[in-house]
Fold this protein.
Amino acid sequence: MHNHSHSHFGDIANQTTKRLALSLGITAIFVFVEIVAGIWGNSLALLTDAAHNFTDVIALGLSWYALRLSLQPAHAGKTFGYHRAGILAALVNSTTLVLIALGIFYEAYQRFLNPPEVNTTILIGVGGIAFLINLGTAFLIKKGSEHDLNLRSAFLHLMGDVLSTLGAVIAGVLILFTNWNWLDPFVSVLIGALILYNAWGIIKQTIHILLESTPENVDLPKMVEDIRQVDGVHDIHDLHVWSINENLRMLSAHVVTNDISIREGAYIQQNINELLAHGYNIQHATLQLECEGCHNMLYCEIKEHSHN
């Protein structure tokens, strides 16, 4: 069963890497086209979208590499394997989005002071093509992004482009009829704000995981009460719950029982593991059984010790 599950996961990951690679290739080609069109049409909205698309190329490349890396087996140097490679990729992706957004705000400010004339034909035409391409590449990697922070960071990159190119087209149409060239940098500011909003959400999630915080949708007090209700459990302490990545949760705890046999203790551990797996999606739990009289704090404080 375990080998079958691992093989199934590998097949899904291989399919995802192929879709990521295809999205990366399409996006990279269009970045070049959009840069040329933006310079020719003197459109900051198109150049802004090209810059965002370039970060998508980086994001897709990092996500692709991180996904391939996460398939590598654990070894003596990496006992947890490479599951957090995707979290690091998501953190890098979201950080580059913040830098891009700040650059957009600065350039938009300069163009607000002196709005240049925009070639609306190029802005509308290229923006429309960009919208279709970005929408297609986004849906190429949408599958699985709901449960994978790495994929979701790449998907949000692409969906940001979908909305920004739609905004560029709308700006082009409005400029065509009103001749208000300031709408081009105005749309760029909206795009930058959207990019910043998406980036901040991913950054918060990655930091939450890297700090080994309790998963947000785990009700820890309820979990403690549920474990205490397991037959044979008197109490629980030294409890730690954290995530390796968005889907892989870990738990360690000391469980207080009577002075019982190893067979009885194994039965208690099995019941707790089933409770954690089905009720809290925790598939890997390290449980240390102790007899009465070994009580300690529920959440123990781990302190660093210096050696003289």
Notes: The CA atoms of residues 4 and 187 lie 50 Å apart. The two ends are 49 Å apart (CA to CA).
